[in-house]
Amino acid sequence: MARPWRVVVLDDGYPDYETERTILAAAGAELVLSPCRGDAAKAALAMGEADGVLVRETPIDAAAIATTQARVIVRYGMGYDNIDTAAAAARGIVVCNVPDHGTEEVSDHALALLLAAIRRVAEADRRVRAHGWGLPIDRKIHRIRGGTLGLIGYGRIGAAFHRKAAALGYARVLVHDPFVREVPAGASLASLDTIAAESDAISLHAPLTNATRHIIGRGFLALAKPTLVLVNTARGGLIDESALAAALAEGRVLAAGLDVYENEPLRHDSPLRSLDNVVLTDHSAWYSEEAIAELQRKAAQEVARVLEGETPLHPVNQTR
């Protein structure tokens, strides 16, 4: 009798994995928890006899992929820059993500960061807790209505954020996304330079690729208004953090709200930690109880599809 398929989970952290076990058992697969905690070498060992792989943050590099017989790797979430998709494709391994699980949560969080940064909510909270009172005269706050909102990336989350932010009264919405040819009424496509120079607020919703890494860098920030508020709930690598920290410290950018960082957790010595005009959260934009349940279910279903010979819904590489 042939052994059941073996599906390995490389990262722990969810309350339980009964959803995955149930879905995969119906497809003739057993689930094996093998937490690697970000260690690529451990991932290579864990993947050795896997037919399917579920992963969150642990890197899956070419060395790990060379060890495995897996047919499918599914990333819990949208981004998949921790997986060497080209190496996987060369070995006939399909890589999939789950791009449609936390749209409402991430767009909600982006809106929360935008408002918190504009209204200096976290700073006021710290002031009151320290028995202070009264906004310092040098802490500028500007009206939202009538301003210009820039969106870099206009997929599911960018569009959801646009829908929610529209209620704030922005007079213009500028969108930059090379894969989008048409945007809804009330928005217009624009170049990155135009968005940099004309936006009062910018929210990032682009994937991290070679083309988008440090898309917000010294050149972009040099064009920005000193009243700019920048929000990032997408990928930390979209921003050159040193350049942003300098611009914030020097008053060339008014404020920022960040949920993602180039290196996570955020480095202890990051200059962002010492700035009053930055709201920092811990890569938690995706979270809600409903989103976790949806993510676990959809990730397991994608593995099951491939193991059963069906076409996956969300492949991100092209196998031979």
TrEMBL record:
Residue ranges of domain D-isomer specific 2-hydroxyacid dehydrogenase NAD-binding in the record: 111-285
Q: Which GO terms describe its cellular component?
A: cytosol
Asked whether the UniProt record includes Oxidoreductase among its keywords, one would answer yes
Q: Which PROSITE patterns does the protein's record reference?
A: D_2_HYDROXYACID_DH_3
Q: Name one Pfam family in it.
A: 2-Hacid_dh_C
Q: Which residues form the D-isomer specific 2-hydroxyacid dehydrogenase catalytic domain?
A: 38-317
Keywords from UniProt, A to Z, are: Oxidoreductase
The record, for InterPro entries, names: CtBP (IPR043322), D-isomer_2-hydroxyacid_DH (IPR050223), D-isomer_2_OHA_DH_cat_dom (IPR006139), D-isomer_DH_CS (IPR029753), D-isomer_DH_NAD-bd (IPR006140)
One annotated GO molecular function is:
NAD binding
What the entry lists under PANTHER family is as follows: 2-HYDROXYACID DEHYDROGENASE-RELATED, GLYOXYLATE_HYDROXYPYRUVATE REDUCTASE B
What protein family does this chain belong to?
Belongs to the D-isomer specific 2-hydroxyacid dehydrogenase family.
Protein name from the UniProt record: C-terminal binding protein
